[in-house]
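Hey, can you fold this one?
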Amino acid sequence: MIIPLKNYKNIIFDLGGVILNIDYSLTANAFVELGVKDFERLFSQTKQQHLFDLLDKGTISPADFRNEIRKHLHSHLEDYIIDEAWNAMLLDLPKARLDFLKQLKATHHLFLLSNTNEIHINEFNKYLKKHFGIPNLSSYFEKMYLSYKVGMRKPDVEIFELVLKENNLQPHETLFIDDSAQHIEGAKKLGINTYWLDASKESILDVFI
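Sure. Predicted structure:
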C-alpha cells in the first residue's frame, strides 16, 4: 500500500519500529541471560505484563521497575545492568528518516505518539545527541506524546482522544502510523486513518507518494 500524502493534513507517528529501529528479541535475550527465563511471556510487542504497562504510563519510577526486576530474579543486579538489558532493543535511527520528517513538516502537521518510558527515552536522547547533535526529537514535531509523561498508553482510546483534542485535529484528516496492529485498532475506533507498518519489510521512506 502506498499512502498519498495529499490526502492528509496531520500525521501521527509511532517512534519504535517506525522512526527508530528496534528489535524486541535483543532485550528478551538479554534478560534471559540475566536469568529471566520467562521474559517472552512477561513482555512482547503484542502483550505485556502489568509491570511494563505501569512503567510505560509513568505510574512507577525507573527505580521501582528495577526493584521489581530484582525481585523477579532474586538477584541484586546493579541498575546499569538492568538498564542495558532493557535498552538492548533500541537500535539505530537512519538519518534519511530525520531528513524525511524535516521535509514533511513543511507541508503537514506532525506529531509523535509513543508507548515508552524514562529509561528508554534517556538512552534514545543520548543516541540523538551523539549522532545528530540534538537533545531530542521535539524540533521535528509540533508536539510529542510520550506515554510515561501523559499517563496513558496505546491502544487505549483516551490517548488518541488527547492528541486530537489538544491539537484540534479532525480524524478524517489525520493519519496514524504504527508497527503494532493492536495500536492501529485503537486509533480506528475514533475514525483516524491508519497504516500498519511492517518494519521487517518496509520503512516510512517506502510508503508515501
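The longest strand covers residues 109-114. Let me know if you want another pass with a different chain boundary.
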